[in-house]
Specification:
With 266 residues, this protein is of the alpha/beta class. Helix content is 33%, strand content 23%. The chain has helices at residues 58-65, 88-93, 111-115, 125-131, 136-149, 166-180, 196-211, 223-229, 252-260, and strands at 20-29, 32-42, 47-51, 73-78, 81-83, 96-99, 184-188, 215-219, 232-237, 240-246.
Length: 266
């Protein structure tokens, strides 16, 4: 069986300190052991797929990294320094941005307002500071620059995001993450429920994130997504990490085998 071939690749085998390192992370919910001493790393300029069946622990791991859950034990380090990520705000301050499946966009706000959600810029001076008057011109200008950097094309920044296509909404959510992230982006099923053309655009966007030197973690159930954009794959099964592989060195059958438990060694 042929090994996986895909267009484009990351920055080669990582030799530097990981952007993010997880060591023996565990998390339980009463009698359920959601994570059992999971270790993994993310490197700049590489896309890592996080694979596993429902209930494998993928969402729990991402929520620990994003500050939503607190692990029972284990460590999370950013650029070699251990951190206790107590809140989502703390995760963001450390340069970790997460794009959840629900995108966390507000349909009635326009594109620039969503990009600056909870980070709104106000006008200078006493009145602007005290009354919280938004500096919409500056927000739109910086939004335009951020989207252009990722080659994201939106008809109008003044348009409510509720009127945009699914692919455009996903692009805005990813663009917001990149605009505020220093080096780590976590993507939870970013192409779910999208059509073929919209999915292709989202995958192109993920490649641009990788090429700009960002460490990307991609949760997906779709093996085609893995073969097209991922450099590495971490497989979870029943809360345990069963494998960490380079995508180009395994077959899709290997990946499925790790997910189902039929395969235990590379």
């Amino acid at each position: 069986m042929e090994r996986i071939r895909r267009s484009g690749q990351g920055l080669g085998r990582p030799m530097t300190t990981p952007a993010l390192q997880v060591e023996k992370l565990s998390k339980s919910f009463r009698a359920i052991q959601a994570l059992d001493e999971v270790s993994m790393s993310l490197h700049r300029g590489r896309v890592t797929a996080l694979l596993g069946d429902n209930g494998a622990g993928k969402s729990t791991l991402v929520k620990c990294l994003a500050g939503v859950y607190q692990p029972d034990s284990g460590t999370i380090s950013i650029d070699g320094t251990n951190h206790r990520i107590a809140t989502p705000d703390m995760a963001q301050s450390l340069g970790i941005e997460t794009v959840h499946q629900n995108l966390s966009l507000i349909d009635t706000l326009d594109v620039s307002e969503n990009l600056f959600l909870n980070r709104e810029q106000t006008r200078g001076g006493w009145i602007g500071a005290r009354l919280g008057v938004l500096n919409r011109g500056r927000m739109r200008s910086e939004c335009r620059t951020a989207l252009a950097h990722l080659e994201i094309k939106i008809p109008s920044l003044r348009q409510p995001v509720g009127l945009l296509s699914g692919g455009q909404r996903q692009a805005i959510a990813i663009g917001r993450a990149v605009a505020w992230s220093r080096h780590i982006v976590l993507l939870d099923e970013p192409a779910a429920a999208l059509g073929v053309e919209q999915t292709s655009r989202v995958l192109d966007l993920i490649r641009r994130l990788r090429d700009s030197g960002i460490a990307v973690l991609l949760i997906t159930h779709n093996m085609d997504r893995v073969t097209e954009v991922c450099d590495d794959a971490v497989i979870l099964r029943r809360g345990k990490k069963t494998a960490k592989v380079e995508v180009d060195e395994v077959t899709t059958a290997d990946l499925v085998g790790f997910i189902t438990g039929a395969k235990t060694t590379v």
